[in-house]
Amino acid sequence: MKRMVTAAVLAALVLACGQKAEQRPAQQTQAQTQTQQQPQTGKQEPPRPAIKQSDARVWIDPVTAAKGSTAAIKVQYYGVEEAKAIVIPLVVPSGVTIDSVSYAGSILEFIATRPINIDNDNHRVLFTAIPTTEPNIPAKEGLLGTVYVTIGPNAESGDIEETFFPPGNYLTYVDTANALIEPHFQPGKLTVQ
Known about the structure:
By secondary structure, the chain is mainly beta. Helices cover about 10% and strands about 40% of the residues. It is built from two helices and twelve strands. It has helices at about 1-15, 30-35, and strands at about 50-60, 65, 70-80, 85-90, 95-100, 115-120, 125-130, 140-150, 160, 170-175, 180-185, 190. Strands 1, 2, 3, 4, 5, 6, 7, 8, 9, 10, 11 and 12 form a twelve-stranded mixed β-sheet that branches. The longest helix is centred in the N-terminal third of the chain and has 15 residues, at about 1-15. The radius of gyration is 16 Å and the shape is elongated.
């Protein structure tokens, strides 16, 4: 029962962020509008909730791509304990269009509930995995997912970073005791040629 409640809460958060701000302008507060207009430096996001630290790690493999081409950004994971859910919000450099996310060949491939939200206006992507009837996410090292992007003519080299993804999504996973855990994050470099 606790697993279903946890999954329902995480699914509601992820699905709520699927509504684009321009589709609901009457509901925006001044703070929401200011947050959307701020650059994605990671310094303007709301304060993080109290989240336990972990020795788990998420990192991005470095990528090199030419302007006008496509690229595959590999998101890797090292888990130290089983997880009931995982939330991965990323931001890419400007001029890069996020096309899709694939779980093929990943440690999350067996999970049916894997919401994805792409926000190209803010160069962000949110992808998650929430086991409902499947076993927990295993404590092991492997690919979490692949983010496919198109490198625009004005794209610049830069880091692929973790980010805040409204309304309340940070890089986290849920452990078997239903606690929010923050893994260490290592950004990846996107080199545009």
